[in-house]
């Protein structure tokens, strides 16, 4: 694995972690009755999520290019990449949960 790939993967993991933290914070704010703050935290999480998706998309395009050229893309597949993708998927789940909890707490507060 190249140093550039490693840095890209850590960028994805860091951004996905920030996203997940924002979504969890949104649930906590909603639980406390701070619905507008909760909604803002979801938007903050979306921003982090976007920061994770951009380099991930570039990696996918690199792999597709290698495949089109008939080259082996095995150098891109590693445990760190799998972890990065796992973090991205889990933050999508947390976003869906956060939105549901915000809606629930908003309804209970009315």
Characteristics:
single chain, 110 residues, mainly alpha, Methane Monooxygenase Hydroxylase, Chain G, domain 1, 0% strand
What does the model show?
The radius of gyration is 17 Å and the shape is elongated. The protein has a single domain (3-105), classed as Methane Monooxygenase Hydroxylase, Chain G, domain 1 (Up-down Bundle). By secondary structure, it is an all-alpha fold. It has helices spanning 3-31, 35-68, 79-109. The mean pLDDT is 92. Helix 1 (3-31) packs antiparallel against helix 2, helix 1 runs parallel beside helix 3 and helix 2 (35-68) runs antiparallel to helix 3 (79-109).
Topology diagram in text:
Elements: H1 3-31, H2 35-68, H3 79-109
Helix pairs in contact: 1-2, 1-3, 2-3
Estimated helix fraction:
over 70%
**Count of separate DSSP helical elements:** 3
Order of helices and strands: HHH
Please report which band the strand proportion falls in: under 5%, 5-15%, 15-25%, 25-35%, 35-45% or over 45%.
Answer: under 5%
Rg of Cα set: 17 Å
What is the approximate shape? elongated
Structurally, the number of domains stands at 1
Beta-strand segment tally:
0
Distance between the first and last residues' Cα: 54 Å
CATH class: Mainly Alpha
Output the CATH topology. Methane Monooxygenase Hydroxylase, Chain G, domain 1
Structural class: mainly alpha
Q: Architecture, CATH level 2?
A: Up-down Bundle
Main beta sheet strand tally, sense and closure: none
Query: Spans of 5+ residues with little confidence (pLDDT < 50)?
Result: none
């Amino acid at each position: 694995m190249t140093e550039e790939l490693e840095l890209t993967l850590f960028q994805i993991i860091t951004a996905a972690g920030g996203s997940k933290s924002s979504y969890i914070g949104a649930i906590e704010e909603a639980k406390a009755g701070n619905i507008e703050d909760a909604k803002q935290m979801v938007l903050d999480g979306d921003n982090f999520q976007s920061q994770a998706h951009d380099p991930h998309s570039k990696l996918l395009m690199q792999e597709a290019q290698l495949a089109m050229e008939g080259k082996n893309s095995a150098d891109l597949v590693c445990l760190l990449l799998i972890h990065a993708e796992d973090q991205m998927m889990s933050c999508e789940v947390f976003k869906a949960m956060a939105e549901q909890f915000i809606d629930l707490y908003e309804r209970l507060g009315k």
